[in-house]
Amino acid sequence: MGLRGVHHIAIIGSDYPRSRHFYTQILGFPIIREVYREARDSWKCDIDVGNAQIELFSFPSPPARPSRPEACGLRHLSFMVADIDVEVARLADHGIECEPIRVDEYTGQRFTFFADPDGLPLELYEDA
Fold it and tell me: Which residues contact residue 66 at a Cβ distance below 8 angstroms, ignoring those fewer than 6 apart?
């Protein structure tokens, strides 16, 4: 196969300005480009997350995502961090609560979960 990696992860936010602020200001990822698509009444913001992108969309009245109990489909999005304690503290400074830090029983790496403004499960995975 000619697959070379992940290009992007598409996310639809229920409140575009709130989601845009979360991913670009709180998590700190830079915007590559942002366009308003008038025919679809939709924003699309390409966000640089290192070796991939998040495509953040808005659509009028999107349905809620079933999450708990876990639904079939994408389970969560994980971000690699150098120091999980620093990132958990930084998120707490923004009022974002993380689950207790756990250790992956197979890799020995530390990880935790939190959520975006729409409840999408996100993970911090320490790359030590």
Answer: none
